[in-house]
What we know:
single chain, Immunoglobulin-like, Ferric Hydroxamate Uptake Protein, Chain A, domain 1, eight-stranded mixed beta sheet, 9 helices
Amino acid sequence: MNLNLKATIVALLACASAYAQSYTVKAVLKDSQSGEAVSFATVSLHNPANDKGIAYELSDENGKATLEGVKNGNYIFRAELLGYKKFEKKIEVKDADLDLGTVKMAPDARMLEAAKVTDRGNPIQMKRDTISFTASTFKTTDNDMLEDLLKKIPGMEISENGTITHNGKEISKITIDGKTFFLNDPQVATKNLPAKIVDKLRVVEKKSDQAEFTGIDDGEEETILDLSIKPGMMNGLFGNVMGGAGHDIPSTDITGDWRWQTGGFVGNFSTDFQVSGVFNANNTNNRGFNDLAGSMMGNMRGGGMGGPGMGQGQGGWGQRNGITTSYMGGLNVGTNLFDDKMELSGNYMYNGTEQSVEEQSSKTTHLEDSDLIYNSTGSSLTGTHGHRIGMRMEHKFSDNTSVIFEPRINFGGGDFLQQDSTYTDTYTLATDATTKTNDSKKLNSGANKNLSASGFALLRQKLGIPGRTITVMGRYSVSQNNLNGNNYSLTNVYDDSGTPTATEINQNYSQLQNSYSAFARATYTQPIVDNLYAEINLAYNWNKSISDKATTDAVTGAAIDSYSNHITNDFSSEEAGANLLYQREDFRAQLGFAVIPSKTHNYTQSGAAYKVDTTITRFNWSPTAMVFGEIGENGSVRLFYRGRSQTPSTNQLITVADNSNPLAVSFGNPNLAPYFSHNLNGDIRYNNKKTYASVNARINGSYTQDPIVNANWYTGGVTYSMPINGPASIGLGGNIFANIPIAKTNFTVFNMLRVNWSQNSSYVGKDINTATYLNPDGSLDYNKFFADYDLIRPKLTENQTKTLGITERLRITYRIDALEFQVSGRTRMSHSDYFLADTRSETTTWNNELAANSTWTHDLAGLSLKGEFMYHWYKGYATQQPDEYIFNAEISKQILKKKATVALKGYDILGQAKNLTVSDSGNVHTESLNNTLGRYVILSFTYRFGTFDRSKMRGPGGPGGPGGPPPMR
């Protein structure tokens, strides 16, 4: 090789080495006025000759931006963000990294004003299984909780008991940046998280962890709400504490009570670590959690130990029934470990409630030749307390192997005291005459202790080629529920001459229920050809419940065998299935089937004389289908079908009578068979990214074979009730939600229409001589009764109920920087037809509402005003209800350099709120009126600390956020 060639090679290598050398350009973006970090700005380098972009990056939550891979040369450094003037600077990179230090960005008032017009109507974005909302689009005050924000979001509804639904689907859990927040209790978030910390909200139709891995739908989809915290609050400790006191202002001379509330939230959030604590206590019906201990006690009472309790009806517009004092405190922690290979979260919470309910109710039971009319008044006191511990661990051993484990433990207890007076009249259709049938007074009390543990585990493994996977999933649960109580009643039954016969019951009882369950599923997926996959799965399901009840005479202490029992129920099923999945980027289709043999074994013993030992086997098969497709760039459609076999509950199998209400005696049926349900669901979504209009329509249908329904018969005005398997039931429903901004104005229209239709059956007995099957003490002789079961069954006449429900809601929102104003109207119609033999009766009720609410803020003065007005009127009820006018108002003022807020709130200022609930079940129509909190005022003080201040709370799109509306002022 000659000298010239060597020199040439050396020169080329030197040039290549120099060319390959690259450097970094760093900068920190800050607001020129406030000095705060400017996050999510676009930072770029451009060629000064032709303005061609060379490198791009986004600034992080601290305003930092690093451009990598920059060669030697001259460039134009540029930083851009909506709401700021564009920053440009000529720079030179020369054989070293370049640090530009602090880059100050000046706010652009003209751009902010333009953003008000162009982006204000963009609150919703839809993408496949996710609907996203920008929180700052909806106006909230410093004192508002997440619940207040959710009520403003189109399609979002919160029921009286705190259940959250979006477009008709219940939200089962809330996560923060994908990390679990207090596991499966959304109320902890909605009642305790400040609305102002939320940046984005995403409603996600989430598949199960197993289905997300395999891509094959397994029918265990759930709807979750994922929150993202505002970037300026993702580093450092922040929170708020609140306390307030006030008093009732009764509409009558009755002396009111003091009202108080206190609460707090403290959090520290980052991309890798989250910790938050909450506490909440009040006597203003603002329970900040799901009362699991109360639910477990209620399940026991519903099984024959005092009835389900008062204040549980549905149907009105009212607040939660009764007056509730509640308290809770909890800690939630989530973190990433081992270089983000493990996500670990855990939580603990303690909670308690005390509820006082007063109730007036009327019930009409439609029979073939008469109507039974019940009227009652009563009251109840209920207390509960509970502890909850939960954890979730997801660990990724490698790109191919991962596990999830999620255990939970709950324990607690409670007590109750319930009393009421009831009288019954019989209206005879042929004679148009009403006669007195019976009356009763009863008092029930008891105390409960409960413990439950459950868990979920999943192993996921990829096998060599893409699409080939194996998963193994398991679930378990164990629970123990103990209830001790007293049941007292005095009943008068009147004969044709009006002469009463009195019966007194005074019993103590003790019941213990133990339940166990286990479920396992294994799946294997295999790619067949391009875009086509096959799956096979095997599953096993087992549950067992054991119940022991001992009843004694409260005076003598003698055992009462007829109201004591032991029952064991054992159910198991196996499932084998296969699925085919075809998948493209814009289309998915799944088709499959499963065979499901099942076996139910029930053993029941009451005293020494009555024993039942039955075994029932069933064979079901279930096709499954799913279709998903995108409609252009703006729409999508989904359709699902699945079938499921379910078993009777322990309470439905217990033959021992529940005599806590001597005028309504119920008992179980050991002959019950499992039932099978077919379910069809679908939705269509459309989101216009230019006009920001969005439409979401849902349909659902169900067909249930061998459903468990009630059979009722009547003797001496006493209702006897027993569950049996009935004819198939049908349910159809649909709803459509539309959110439409009006051109480039500040107005948005939201409309919701929901239609439901159902056909269900119950049974009404006739010519059943109940006295034949009664013991001398009035209890049921189960041997005689179930020995004649095949003779009694034909005496039960089918009562068919067809119900049509229609709900329409229209809301118009006007929104500018300082003001949000909404007017809305809502009506709910329910029409039920009852068919019993050759007779037909019907009821039609209307619940109507007109409402208006507004939120006004003056940022410079730190002043906020909120007002809410509702007008309710009702039609078609057996007892005509007066119209009601509800007015709530709040005024708040920021103090202490806007770190604190003083607020004065008035609730039900006109003193007209009430709780009307309505239900239709079989041939029974019930209307109940409960006490409510009523009119009161409360003065509160809220203090914010850490990064929780106004300067960090700006809405995205103004200084500090990418491409949304300007800050709410």
